[in-house]
Design a protein that fits this description.
The chain is an alpha+beta fold and 245 residues long. It has a domain of 135 residues. It is 46% helix and 16% strand. Helix 1 runs antiparallel to helix 2, helix 4 crosses helix 5 and helix 9 runs parallel beside helix 12.
């Protein structure tokens, strides 16, 4: 089973390579992932993801797990698992208040503050759908640009229809904004990338497999349990998000 730090980098590599989060050495992340090697250098690179890492620390702490890069903790954040259901509402609220209240307006903060009591979990979909856009931005006339970014950042699940060298043809839902609400479409065929500079993390993928898609990058092969969890937590946070758009 893949160690937590290696699982983390599979999902973190592409947004880091695009310059959206983490440090400035995406090539090192790729090399660690290809080599399946973990050392202090990788751990230091992953601690630079100041958006994701505090969520890992929160999940670990509230589940009495010492290492925030424990595999189950990493899986909980990016994909979803039972650890999320054990996170205390008050702890999540306090974390959100400390991290994001200073960055929001007095109008926007109450919108975010109600999410923990409403059932939000420290899952990547929560951060994408709730923290990133903020209520003010969603109502500002920049909706198309924001939704496009959210669509790319949201980790989606796709079933592989064909393998074609550096690309995969998959059937996957995508995010859209209709009638003032965010929705997931029915699965549609699209092409995603699985190699960067001729290398990637899903080399042995086959037709019929489920893959995780992040910023157009097939970053991981999912088990049926993982696919179900990813869909469950994503749809849950989509429902919460639509209550306050």
């Amino acid at each position: 089973m893949l160690p937590g730090p290696l699982l983390f980098l599979r999902y973190a590599f592409m947004p880091n390579q695009l310059g959206y989060c983490g440090g400035s050495d995406s090539q090192a992340l790729l090399e660690y992932g290809i080599a399946n090697h973990v050392d202090r250098g990788l751990l230091e690179l992953e601690r630079q993801f100041d958006g994701a890492f505090p969520y890992l620390e929160l999940i670990a702490r509230t589940n009495d797990i010492v290492d925030p890069l424990d595999r189950q903790v990493v899986e909980a954040y990016w994909i979803g698992n039972s650890l999320l259901d054990r996170v205390d509402i008050g702890v999540l609220y306090a974390s959100l208040e400390q991290r994001f209240r200073p960055r929001t307006t007095s109008k926007d903060w109450p919108w975010l503050a109600i999410k923990a009591p409403a059932g939000a979990k420290p899952h990547h979909s929560f951060h994408v759908l709730e923290v990133y856009p903020r209520a003010g931005l969603m109502r500002s006339g920049l909706v198309d640009r924001i939704v496009d970014t959210m669509k790319n950042c949201l980790i989606r699940w796709g079933r592989v229809c064909a393998v074609s060298g550096p690309q995969l043809v998959v059937e996957a839902p995508t995010l859209r904004h209709d009638f003032g609400k965010l929705q997931l479409t029915e699965p549609r065929r699209e092409t995603v990338v699985r190699w960067h500079d001729g290398r990637g993390f899903v080399g042995d993928v086959r037709e019929g497999d489920w893959v995780a898609i992040h910023w157009g990058w097939a970053c991981d092969v999912l088990t049926l349990r993982q696919q179900a969890n990813l869909e469950r937590f994503t749809r849950w946070h989509l429902t919460l998000c639509n209550q306050t758009i």
